[in-house]
Amino acid sequence: MTRALIFDFDGVIVNSEPVQFEVFRDLLAEEGIAITAKEYEAGYLALDDRRCFEIALARAGRPADPGHLDALVARKMARYEIARTRAPAVPGIHAFVRAADGHVALAIASGGFRSDIEALLAHHGLRSHFPVVVSIEDCRRGKPDPECLHACLSRLNAGMPTPILPAECVVIEDSFHGITAARAAGMRCIGVATTYPPERLAGAERVVATLEGLDPLGL
């Protein structure tokens, strides 16, 4: 029985990855580091900003000084704040969320920043559906570590007369890092092929091309 749906954000609720890549690419170019869309897809998707910059600097043979990383993350946040409203909602997400709301608990567990998540949920008219939002600021470790999913479930269970068990949760993800986190948390996972091809999501119990037409109460 499914009692909770836990959504990733980027690539599941909004298609923000192209915009994220543009901002990341431009900032790295200012550091003298070139990155292609193919390289970004292969090595950076689903990682938090700090880890992305850390990897990019390391691959360029540059030291990842903590102060420099902090500055890069701050610059990325500022630029993405301007660009983020260009990110469209993922097809089918509105109908899917509306069909689920009131029947199962809904939450978001994302490696993104809370300010971006909150702003885009409001922009797309979805904020009221998600009483629990866990962002990178709430966790010490990003996906594929399951910490954000544990935090989500803990918040969902606050005040619940009968706690929701991990096996009663379905995580909706678009990346293998997120699928790995869901499995580590003891939760089922639906892979949505919005970012990666279906074969890259093979670790999920079920892989769908889109949420359009999918019944959230039948998961």
Q: Which key terms come to mind for this protein?
A:
DNA polymerase, domain 1, 219 residues, 6 strands, alpha/beta, 2 domains
Outline the structure in words.
The protein is of the alpha/beta class. The protein folds into two domains: 4-15 and 87-218, 3-Layer(aba) Sandwich (Rossmann fold); 17-85, DNA polymerase, domain 1 (Orthogonal Bundle), CATH 1.10.150. The protein has eight helices and six strands. The chain has helices at 17-30, 37-43, 49-59, 66-83, 93-100, 114-123, 147-157, 176-184, and strands spanning 4-7, 105-109, 132-134, 169-173, 188-192, 206-208. α1 (17-30) packs across α4 and α3 (49-59) crosses α4 (66-83). The longest helix is centred in the middle third of the chain and has 18 residues, at 66-83. The termini are close together. The mean pLDDT is 94.
Shape: globular
Q: For the terminal residues, how far apart are their CA atoms?
A: 8 Å
**What profile does the largest beta sheet have?**
6 strands, parallel
The sequence of SSEs as H and E is EHHHHHEHEHEHEE
Portion of residues in beta strands equals 5-15%
In short:
The chain is an alpha/beta fold.
Detail the topology: elements first, then pairings.
Blueprint: E1 4-7, H1 17-30, H2 37-43, H3 49-59, H4 66-83, H5 93-100, E2 105-109, H6 114-123, E3 132-134, H7 147-157, E4 169-173, H8 176-184, E5 188-192, E6 206-208
Parallel strand pairs: 1-2, 1-4, 2-3, 4-5, 5-6
Helix pairs in contact: 1-4, 3-4
